[in-house]
TrEMBL record:
Keywords: Isomerase. It comes from Schistosoma curassoni. It catalyses: a uridine in tRNA = a pseudouridine in tRNA; a uridine in mRNA = a pseudouridine in mRNA; uridine in 5S rRNA = pseudouridine in 5S rRNA. The keyword Coiled coil does not apply. This is Pseudouridylate synthase RPUSD4, mitochondrial. Residues 28-82 form the Pseudouridine synthase RsuA/RluA-like domain. GO terms for biological process: pseudouridine synthesis.
């Protein structure tokens, strides 16, 4: 959840701030296609960190966004949204200001719907939630000889899951073929503030409630 709201729909952000317009309709997007685009972009840009994002709703000077990434750079999404789009995540006091560290400043309309004074904004939690993790696990025979025993033990644990846990409708791209998918519902503070602000999840994400 971002504040302030975005004034346009954008699809992609990289360190070079490459941006593409997308359709205004908030229909279900294909996660597989998003991952494929990310993978291709990473190959083209030599594994440059890339964040794919979709604007789902906006109201009261706030926006609800869905982000996807294949790279695990620390604070990647937070930094891309704050410094690339100038729309920091609600409750992100670390990246709300580029040149100094201070509590986030919220627009008056957002303070009113959240029923909070600016002096208390410092207590707002970060509204960033990992709703889904797609984990590609290589076959045991393809494990790198240089991989540590602890990593291999983790992969062995994941491989022990029944194959029915994997998503068999994934693209044939070998990098993201048949990943395991893990999901998590929204935390209470996130759900509560969605309702206060008036932001709504699209129908295909209603299971997060």
């Amino acid at each position: 959840m971002c504040a302030p709201q975005l004034n346009r729909h954008l699809q992609e952000l990289t360190c070079k701030q490459t941006q593409l317009d997308i359709n205004n309709e908030a229909n279900e997007y294909d996660v597989t296609d998003a991952f494929s685009v990310l993978y291709d972009k990473m190959q083209t840009n030599h594994n440059q960190p890339t964040t794919w994002y979709h604007l789902m709703d906006r109201r009261n000077d706030a926006a609800l966004m869905l982000c996807s990434t294949l790279t695990g750079i620390k604070h990647q999404i937070r930094a891309h949204l704050a410094f690339g789009l100038q729309t920091p995540i609600l409750g992100d006091h670390k990246y709300s200001h580029a040149e100094y560290l201070a509590p986030q400043r919220l627009p008056k309309s957002l303070l009113e719907v959240l029923n909070i004074r600016q002096s208390k904004v410092r207590y707002i939690s970060l509204h960033l939630h990992a709703l889904s993790l797609h984990l590609h696990v290589p076959p045991s025979s393809s494990s790198s000889p240089s991989s540590s025993s602890s990593n291999e033990g983790f992969f062995d644990f994941v491989r022990s899951f029944d194959n029915s846990h994997s998503n068999n409708n994934i693209t044939n791209n070998k990098f993201i073929k048949n990943p395991f998918k893990f999901t998590a519902p929204l935390p209470n503070h996130f759900r509560g503030n969605l309702k206060r602000i008036g932001l709504k999840l699209p129908h295909y994400l209603k299971y997060l409630h």
